[in-house]
Design goal:
With 425 residues, this protein is mainly beta. Helices cover 11% and strands 31% of the residues. The strands form eight sheets. Strands 1, 2, 3, 4, 5, 6, 7, 8, 9 and 10 form a ten-stranded antiparallel sheet that branches. A three-stranded antiparallel sheet has the order 11-12-13, with no helix packed on it. A three-stranded antiparallel sheet has the order 16-17-18, with no helix packed on it.
């Protein structure tokens, strides 16, 4: 119960003294009846709704009349003015804004018990905690002792009854077993449900990359490199270059990170490298592929000196351990455990011996001009008249003769052929 900063200091002091003196006077019922429900506190406070269903300011401060729906750390005006003789927190908002029940419970009291509390409603939950809302401009029809209410149900409107002339606000008190003066600071509980204050006050929509939700909360998707999307799937931040806007499928975020895209947003991110794998995205979809497995198909593998396994499309689906000092070897596609001696690779075969070079190759062809040298036959490089010329594969001579020898002999043969033709002419 605080005065506006515009009121004279003396009047502020007088009202403060009056409020301090009448704290206990706020308890009596309108008709002198006792509380309708009394029970021991058996659990913690269970607020699920903020008391004001409208833009507001928590706690008296220099900006008490700056009302907002922004909740959480972004609300720089949220503070507690609890302490001393002020048993509770003042919540400021425009006159006439709806005041709702913060939890399911039963109405203990409703009415005007004193000129300091004004209209007030006290509701007790199943655990025994009492939620007090004072200075109401009006109390909703049907709200009275013994009436059961639900969280979010309107119980009255915000005003300044009992503190006329001050800024409209609701005084909120949280106590165990309805002991008003044996209360606790309600700020943590109020702060945790502040995001519900403007439920329904805004229509969820996008303003560029900024998402505005039903509670008028605002968040910039662009800060995370995303865009704002509002469709039949709801309001959300999405990464269209990374995920489809509708549906669910796995993706690789990096060489080791696997995630699930859900309606445009990557969720459930996991690190494949923890399992000795990498992330692969191919025709079979994104998945973790074990380092000793091929991405596709089934096959045996040795993934350490003493461990064998079976791979299926990149996953290690079975494994075994070699015992008795045996080691894992992979031969002809089958993994098995063998002794170290058996695992030694076979010695490399000796290279085949080169055939002896034909001595005839080093002899020049018959240059005597005898008729046994055919005009249409290449020179005999092997010492036989019917021998085939050297064969070539991929540009390399397959005969034992070198290219240089063959070229020299060819030149000689062409010279002999020219001489014979001249003689015949």
């Amino acid at each position: 119960m605080r005065l506006s900063r515009l009121r004279p200091p003396l009047e502020t002091l007088m009202v403060a003294v009056t409020c301090a003196a009448c704290v206990e006077g706020e308890r009596p019922d309108d008709d002198g009846a006792t509380a309708a429900v009394q029970s021991a506190v058996v659990c913690g406070p269970a607020l699920t709704r903020f008391p004001i269903a409208a833009p507001h300011n928590i706690g008296y401060d220099a900006a008490w009349n700056t009302f907002t729906c922004t909740s959480g750390p972004g609300n720089s005006h949220a503070n507690s003015d609890y302490g001393g003789d002020h048993h509770g927190i003042d919540l400021f908002a425009a006159r006439g804004e709806p005041i709702v029940s913060v939890a399911d419970g039963v109405v203990l009291r409703a009415g005007w018990p004193s000129n300091t509390s004004g209209n007030r409603v006290v509701i007790q939950d199943a655990c025994g905690w009492a939620y007090y809302a004072g200075h109401l401009d009006s109390i909703a029809e049907g709200i009275g002792p013994g009436v059961r209410v639900s969280a979010g149900q309107v119980i009255g409107t915000l005003g300044d009854t009992g503190t006329e002339g001050t800024a409209p606000h609701v005084h909120f008190n949280l106590s165990a077993d309805d002991r008003y003066s044996d209360d606790i600071d309600p700020f943590p509980a109020l702060f945790s449900v502040e995001h519900t204050a403007c439920a329904g006050a805004c229509d969820a929509h996008c303003e560029g990359s900024v998402a505005v939700d039903d509670f008028c909360g605002r968040g910039d998707c662009g800060v995370f490199g995303a865009i704002c999307v509002d469709d039949d799937r709801g309001l959300r931040c999405a990464y269209p270059g990374l995920c489809p806007l509708v549906g669910e499928r796995p993706i690789c975020l990096s060489a080791s990170e696997l995630a699930t895209c859900r309606d445009g947003l990557p969720v459930d991110v996991g690190d494949c490298s923890v399992y000795g794998a990498g992330c692969v995205d191919d025709d079979l979809g994104a998945r973790c592929v074990f380092f000793a497995c091929r991405p596709m198909g089934g096959h045996d593998t040795c993934f350490s000196a003493t461990h064998s396994g079976r791979c299926d499309d990149g996953s290690l689906v079975a494994q075994g351990e070699c015992v008795d000092d045996t080691v894992c070897v992979l031969r002809e596609g089958v993994a098995s455990c063998v002794s170290p001696e058996e695992a030694e690779p076979a010695p490399a075969p000796e290279p085949p011996a080169m055939p002896p070079q034909d001595a005839a190759v080093d002899q020049p062809p018959d240059a005597s001009g005898s008729a046994d040298v055919s005009l249409d036959q290449s020179p005999d490089l092997s010492g036989r008249a019917d021998a085939a010329p050297p064969s070539f594969a991929d540009g390399c001579a397959m005969a034992p003769d070198s290219r240089g020898v063959y070229a020299a002999l060819t030149v000689v043969w062409l010279g002999l052929r020219t001489r014979r033709r001249r003689r015949l002419a």
